[in-house]
Design brief:
The chain is α+β, with helices and mostly antiparallel strands. The protein has twelve helices and eight strands.
């Protein structure tokens, strides 16, 4: 086999490792490409191609993560991983660990770990590497790596939910959720949402977003029902699919461009969290990206006569009772500098 053929054989594994360490499709692809450049330029032939390239991509990912953490600390609003539709690496013996480790919830827990702890956890707990290989990769002793693994596992276990829902139950519940969403069925949504369900979005300051997360069955159900029927009226469509191995959907404008993704955290028979990613920088790997601000304006125009809707510029989204209309059920801006739960913007707005 040529070096290129050897590399292509392990490319799915390399991407899988890098994505779990970095939480970014773009950065993971860059790390894999850098790994190839180093391998192609190397004069030595390693005994184990898999071990050698896994070590290289891990070291590169650790370095990238160290610089990325500074940017994430300054990130406007909640930071979520870039949505991943399909994990290219498959291992039937570790399929459960692979699926769990790529979920939004797990990747957000991994953010609490140091870069080296995160790398050790990913290599050991997800991909089953031995401590000798891990020690060589991260430049620590085997006992130190064992301690890092224990500490990382303790942090991860503390943040994990007590009850898991099997794949079929998640899919059935998600199907009911999107059906209720399409029909604007508030009661149907309430039956599916946990009492402390959270609706939160990552727009990175580059798309309409909530000024804060929405928490609670009634509030989340009302906001969802107030927004999504109006999106349908301007030909926004959605495709239910798995996003980060969780039930979710991709929303597109009338031209088929990606507007945002939605993922559902399903545990103990209820939806615990609804997370949207609308930051266009995090959607480009999925295809052409829609102008979310243009969609927001179009929905607002469809929602109310233009003389009643003030301009979006300079307004900040908050959730509160509508002061003008007791029948109002969406999110429309009011002159008290509030958005009531009468807004027409995808998952709220702030700009």
């Amino acid at each position: 086999m040529t070096r290129a053929e050897e590399f292509e054989e392990v490319r799915p594994l390399l991407f899988a490792i890098a994505y779990r360490i970095l939480g970014s499709v773009t950065e993971a692809e860059d790390a894999v490409q850098e790994t190839w450049l180093r391998y192609a330029a190397s004069a030595t032939q390693p005994t184990s191609i898999k071990a050698f390239l896994s070590a290289v991509v891990t070291r590169i990912s650790i370095d990238v993560l160290r610089s990325a953490r500074v940017r994430r600390e300054e990130y406007p609003g909640p930071w979520f991983p870039e949505p991943l539709l399909a994990d290219p690496y498959e291992d039937p013996e570790r399929s459960a660990e692979l699926a769990d480790s790529v979920s939004m919830a797990a990747l957000l827990l991994l953010e609490r770990l140091s870069p080296v702890e995160r790398a050790v956890f990913v290599l050991r707990e997800v991909f089953g590497f031995g401590f000798a290989e891990i020690a060589s990769t991260v430049g620590r002793s085997e006992p130190a790596c064992r301690q890092l693994a224990v500490r990382a596992r303790r942090h991860m276990d503390a943040g994990r939910p007590r009850f898991e829902t099997d794949r079929r139950e998640r899919q059935e519940l998600a199907a009911r959720f999107f059906e209720a969403l399409q029909e604007g069925d508030v009661e149907g949504l309430r039956e599916l949402l946990a009492a402390d369900v959270q609706l939160v979005g990552d727009a990175g300051g580059k798309a309409p977003q909530l000024s804060r997360s929405i928490i609670g069955t009634d509030k989340v159900a009302r906001v969802l029902v107030s927004v999504f029927p109006w999106l349908g009226k301007i030909d926004v469509t959605f495709e239910p699919c798995e996003v980060n191995s969780q039930p979710g959907a991709i929303f597109r404008d009338r031209d088929g461009r990606v507007l945002y993704t939605l993922t559902l955290d399903v545990l103990d028979g209820r939806i615990q969290a609804i997370r949207s990613v609308s930051n266009p920088d995090k959607l480009r790997h999925l295809g052409p990206v829609a102008d979310a601000w243009a969609v927001a304006r179009e929905v607002n125009q469809a929602r109310r006569p233009s003389h009643l809707a003030p301009p979006l510029s300079g307004w900040r989204a908050t959730i509160g009772p509508c002061p003008n209309d007791s029948k109002c059920s969406g999110l429309l801006p009011h002159r008290q500098a509030r958005y009531s739960p009468c807004s027409a913007i995808p998952v709220g707005t702030s700009r």
